[in-house]
Specification:
heterodimer; A: 85 residues; alpha+beta; Alpha-Beta Plaits; 4-stranded antiparallel beta sheet; 2 helices; 42% strand; globular; B: 564 residues; alpha/beta; Rossmann fold; 6-stranded parallel beta sheet; 21 helices
Chain lengths: 85, 564
């Protein structure tokens, strides 16, 4: 059963950073249902992803944390309700 | 260093800064192939103290750099031009990614003004390689080159190693600039520390049937000695993955050998019956676990790894310890009172010991490889590196050769790259000139990078090649026989070239054998040779690798040799 979760990633605004993040998420078996980006502090994006997958998002968060351009994975919500952060 | 040091105020081209930065990182050898967009870098190489090895295909450069890295523990470096040069590196980058090899890949790129215009030899290698690099850089300002190189080396090495790409546009390479002082941009945050040590110690003390399951991460973490100490203290039965072979003495009665699809039955029995797995630098790869849901069904898990993303990826850990593997193993070691379990494992080990009494006069590949390994050990002690390609011979090497350390066995584990063996041997030869380097290959694999025989000749390298020729893509043929109702599809290679003539055309001496009684003298001649040499060995095309876990089955369902 696919579950919908939200993940908020703070990402350095460098060449390829967004592609790298989205590619990793898809390759690890998560469908991106929604995406919103906004500038956070200088040179950093706040990227909010709504993800659908049958997989556990725990390992995904750790894989995202390993990306060189990721400053932090701020929040993981669960369930189908929109998550606000 | 005197004249090569990077000082503020010095004005050089971007390419010259790149070479200076590589020198500052301690690079001695790099592997590559020139072309249009990388020409400024090759120009800057002239007069540098870097030794550049010109291969005959860029894939050879990447795989040689991997062999160099794995044999030496240093970062391997390779470079190529834009477009086809860059795409030819891709397989090597993927190999380094899946086997966690520290690799720096430098590609030329068309000038920034032409990027995005479908220029001659333009491909987006940065984009193509995003899924298979640890990180990548597209350098747009020449003054960033030195810092980028330093950063790339640090990323390639730290934590779980991996490949890092630097794509360098031609106009950036030719621009004259002063470099900024090479300070590191930013250190990566330390991986989250999971404080599982107390829990792990309790699990270990309470266990009646523990098994050490060690993987290639033990070598990368420099934890082989710590693993040996841990094994000596606990005397827990140990199983090894393909990439951990060499970490423990295979003659030790508490070392049960390789686990998994073509592992030893004794190793798989022990894992299936264990009540605790101590997983050190391993990642529950499907070739090791068989059907995951049935893997070690009675065991709790202590997982030690440098990479926090491996914890819980495929199997939940009851205790997890991230970070320095050697320190974790030392902290965890304790004597265990598990004699009944040791006796059971020793009995499995004895029952399933490899046998070499195959009937017939044909060359029996497992016996040949056992003899090769023994003769090399008698002649060179522990100073031997064996590389191999992918397929049946790869599994026979893993089963029947013995390795004094992990870095003495270079095999393409994660990606399974046919064509790995010869270039990896070239890299190993440069990395470890004190060692004898042997490449075991197959008639399918050797043709994937056969052009690198020219590199052996060019540099006068001594690499001994054992080519096991069954006139087929043997592993695929074996699967078609066993799992596709003997419907053989595109696996016949009976029209192979004459490999002795091929070797001689590259000015590599070669001999051929096809009978078992020829093996001993031929191996002696091969190992005694003062130059590269190829031994062509014709083997039975019907020979299969045994035992095996059928695809999708549990490791408890290994099948043994079929009756002939």
């Amino acid at each position: 059963m696919s579950e919908r979760r939200a993940l908020v990633v703070r990402l350095r605004r460098t060449e390829g950073a967004l592609l790298r993040l989205l590619g990793l998420v898809q390759r690890r078996g998560f469908e991106i249902a929604d995406i919103a980006t906004a500038p956070a502090e200088a040179g950093v994006w706040r990227v909010r992803l709504e993800l659908e997958s049958v997989r556990d998002p725990g390992p995904l968060a750790r894989q995202i944390e390993k990306l060189y351009d990721v400053v932090a994975v701020d929040a993981v919500g669960s369930g189908s309700a929109p998550v606000t952060t | 260093m005197a004249d090569g040091s990077i000082r503020k105020g010095t004005r050089l081209s971007g390419a010259a800064w790149l070479i200076r930065a590589l020198e500052e990182e301690g690079v001695e050898t790099l592997f590559g192939y020139p072309g249009g967009a990388i020409m400024p870098v090759y120009d800057a190489l002239v007069g540098s103290r870097l030794r550049h090895v010109l291969v005959r295909h860029e894939q050879g450069a990447a795989l040689a750099a991997i062999g160099y890295a794995r044999a030496s523990g240093k970062v391997g470096v390779c470079m190529a031009t834009s477009g086809p040069g860059a795409t030819n590196l891709v397989t090597g980058i993927a190999d380094a990614f899946l086997d966690s090899v520290p690799l720096l890949v430098i590609t030329g790129q068309v000038p920034t003004t032409l990027m995005g215009t479908d220029a001659f030899q333009e491909v987006d290698v940065f984009g193509i390689t995003l899924p298979i690099v640890k990180h990548s850089f597209l350098v747009r300002r020449p003054e960033d080159i030195v810092a980028t190189v330093r950063e790339a080396f640090a990323i390639a090495r730290e934590g779980r190693p991996g490949p890092v790409l630097i794509d360098l546009p031609k106009d950036v390479a030719v621009a004259m600039v002063e470099a900024d002082p090479p300070t590191r941009i930013e250190r990566r945050p330390a991986p989250p520390s999971v404080s599982g040590l107390a829990r792990a110690r309790a699990l270990l003390a309470a266990s009646e049937r523990p098994v050490i399951y060690a993987g290639g991460g033990v070598g990368m973490a420099g934890a082989e000695d710590a693993l040996r100490r841990f094994h000596a203290t606990t005397r827990a039965p140990a199983v090894l993955t393909l990439k951990a072979l060499g970490a423990l003495d295979p003659d030790d009665p508490m070392v049960l050998g390789m686990l998994g699809m073509h592992g030893n039955q004794g190793a798989n029995h022990a894992v299936q019956e264990a009540d605790l797995l101590i997983v050190a630098g391993a990642r529950f790869d499907d070739r090791a676990t068989g059907r995951l849901a049935t893997f070690a069904p009675k065991a709790r898990v202590i997982h030690l790894d440098a990479d926090p993303a491996e914890i819980g990826k495929l199997r939940e850990a009851d205790a997890a310890i991230c970070g320095d593997l050697a320190r974790a193993l030392d902290a965890l070691a304790q004597p265990l009172a598990i004699d009944p379990w040791r006796a059971r494992c020793a009995a499995w080990r004895a029952e399933h010991a490899w046998r070499y009494d195959a009937p017939g006069t044909d060359v029996y590949a497992p016996l040949l490889l056992k003899q090769l390994s023994e003769k090399a050990r008698a002649r060179f002690g522990e100073r031997t590196v064996i590389t191999c390609d992918v397929g049946q011979h790869q599994m026979w090497v893993a089963q029947h050769c013995r390795f004094p350390r992990i870095s003495a066995h270079l095999t393409s584990g994660g990606l399974g790259t046919m064509g790995f063996g010869l270039p990896a041997a070239i890299g190993a030869r440069f990395a470890r000139p004190d060692c004898e380097v042997i490449c075991v290959s197959g008639d399918g694999s050797i043709m994937m990078n056969v052009q690198e025989l020219a590199t052996l000749h060019r540099y006068g390298l001594k690499v001994k090649i054992v080519l096991l020729d069954n006139s087929a893509l043997g592993m695929v043929r074996q699967w078609q026989e066993l799992f596709f109702a003997e419907r053989y599809s595109e696996v016949d290679l009976s029209d192979n070239p004459d490999f002795v003539e091929v070797a001689r055309a590259f000015r590599i001496p070669a001999i051929a054998i096809d009978r078992r009684d020829q093996v001993g003298p031929a191996l002696d001649a091969l190992l005694a040779a003062e130059t590269s040499m190829l031994l062509h060995v014709r083997i039975d095309p019907r020979a299969n690798v045994w035992p095996l876990v059928p695809p999708g089955k549990s490791n408890g369902e290994m099948i043994e040799r079929r009756a002939a």
